[in-house]
Amino acid sequence: MNILLIDPPFYRFFNYYNRYFPLGLSYLSSTLKKAGHQVTIYDADCNKNSKGMDYTRLPEKYLIYLKELKNLENPIIKEISETFIKYQPDIVGITVMTPKAASAFTIASLAKKYNKGCSVVFGGPHATLKADEILKNTRDVDFVLSGEGEAVLLELVNVLHAKGNNFSTIQGLSYRQGDKYIHNTMRSFIDDLDCLPFPDRETLLGSDTYTSEDMGLLMGSRGCPYRCSYCATQIWTRKVRYRSLANILEEIRYVYHHYRTRQFTFKDDSFTVNRTRVMEFCNKFIDTGIKANWDCNTRVDLVDPELLRAMKKAGCNSIKVGIESGSERILKLMDKGITLERVKEAARLFREAGIHWTAYFMMGIPTETKEDVKKTLDLLYKIRPSFASVGVYEPFPGTKLFDVGVEHGLVNKEMVYEDFFARIPSDYYLKDIHRRVDTMNQEDFITLENEVKDAFHDYNKGVMRILERAKARSNIYLHNPRIFFNDIEKFLGWLR
Hints:
The protein is of the alpha/beta class. The protein is built from 19 helices and 15 strands.
């Protein structure tokens, strides 16, 4: 079968930078290719020449996204249609995150215009959570995958390849049967992650537009043991499954030599959840003799001085952590499981270890007051991260806070097709787009939002923070000056 896997355009519509290659699609591709199928990965959101980087101001661009999705003369829309004609896929697989839903629906429609007999498959986080809603909303989507897609998609492709129509035994698959929507039982998660082939970086269209750093994206584990109420990763269960360190290091060696990558990024939800494993990884990474840096995500309660020293020695040059709020009450509502004292302690440890660190914050949580938000700003200036980002909470299905929003009359359980094209993504599932929180009117909230985002923007422009980031990335700049000049260009655009 000829299969085209697509990451829908989103950031590209408003000329924002979108780093890395689509990791999930690349795992699907390598699995399908191993079974003998022909696959092409089309990252329609790839936009390496863009200058936008201030993601705190991202929602200001969403109206452009809505407008251009409906513009059949938009070069991105025309490119998608031309790609279908050029590659003649029998199956189109589209990964769907909630903010990209309208874009995914558009691609499905274009695929059916190209060939009504082409099978359109949705997968990814939004598809897993909203399979029934997707099938109800459009007949352009034939199948929806839930959970990990590698085995589900391979089994579906094999059935379609044999021109069969018995889909009832494919676990993790949803589909339409007449006027009924069929949802098969969920498939068990993959315990042995080493059985998966390495992500397929070779089949990416326009692979020459990716930098060596873009190719350095890695996933060392799947799953997260925590239950933050704003996060939908709980759908993957709280069990963490690991690749062996030997398997990870083999992939690092391959990417290091094949793409000359000097900066790797671990996409694991909480990289240091298993302290012993991280210490072992650091020692083994040093033993490889590979001269490269890497960054990761973790939590403030999963670091200590010895661990950070080991990570720094092994090349870790950046850590990202979710702080979320400066209000203890809001942290408890989020089920974050951390205290402000622990946040302050971790900030001190990051500084002492000399590791660049990014703090992520959030505002607009149901029941959050102006006083709660002011506490978040106060905390920013107390802990002084190397970089800080703030976003307005968006009610994603499958999260506890989504259910809280429903209880408080702020959120609808479902959306209809037209709403995805009439609302900006940050307003998805809101019952009333003029009522985001229940503690203040919309005008007051927007004023507060602008005040907070301006404060974060000004904070990040500080000279010391700019120098700190440059120092952390000095190794990659020495090995690849192109990345240095790209960073400078994007940073200048971000300052505007």
